[in-house]
Amino acid sequence: MQSACRPLLGSAERLQGVSSQSAYSEETMKYICLGYFDVKKWETMSESEQNAFLDKCFAYDDVLRKNGHIVSGEALQSARNAVTLRWKNGKVSMTDGPYAETKEQLGGFGVFEARDLNHAIELMSMHPAVKGGPIEIRPVDDLSEMIRQSERRRARE
Questions:
Q1: Which of 29, 101, 109, 148 is 20 to 30 A distant from 77 in Cα terms?
Q2: What percent of the chain clears pLDDT 70, i.e. is strictly above it?
Q3: What is the number of domains present in the chain?
Q4: With DSSP H G I counted as helix, E B as strand and the rest as coil, what are the percentages for the chain, rounded to 5?
Q5: Mean pLDDT throughout 148-155?
Q6: Nearby residues of 107 by Cβ (< 8 Å), 6 or more positions away
Q7: Does residue 9 sit within a domain?
Q8: CA 127 to CA 124: how far, in whole Å?
């Protein structure tokens, strides 16, 4: 497996030659991409630097979308607006803010399709967002069979 820490193809232009997912004969898998960023670093950037960074990210998103890789995705508001729920002493307790204090915070997530994990790494290693913070890639777990079994059990009750 190739390292996700170094660029694998080198440029977004190279990806434009990749055929869309619908043209692949093999089945694709879904992956969740969690994008983190350093808030303090972002705040030290000028408005024009922030805009240039965002423009590069959105342009690459357009390439991924055009090639059939993006399923969905959303940006997240600041971790200051988060609420964390925990089960504690037999009931739900709520804490304002994120679970842990960290330098980097989750900035958004995307759901995309790729042939396999190596392909997912290849696609995301070219995303400009990787220069703003780490990107975690996880395969989506298909719970359809588990849900069907649960529905059958509950229907018997």
A1: 29
A2: 79
A3: 1
A4: 40, 30, 30
A5: 93
A6: 35, 36, 37, 75, 76, 132, 133
A7: no
A8: 5
**Which domain does 146 fall in, by range?**
24-156
pLDDT above 80: residue 89: yes
Prediction pTM value: 0.71
Q: Does residue 13 lie in a domain region? A: no
DSSP string across 113-153: EESSHHHHHHHHHT-GGGGTS-EEEEEPP--HHHHHHHHHH
Q: Which two tokens stand for residue 44?
A: 């030290």
- Which domain CATH number covers 140? 3.30.70.1060
Q: How confident is the model at residue 24 (pLDDT cuts 50, 70, 90)?
A: very low
Rounded (5°) CA angle 55-56-58: 65
Please indicate, yes or no, if residue 42 is contained in any of the structural domains.
yes
Answer yes or no: is 67 within a domain.
Answer: yes
Q: Which residues sit opposite 38 in a β-bridge?
A: 104
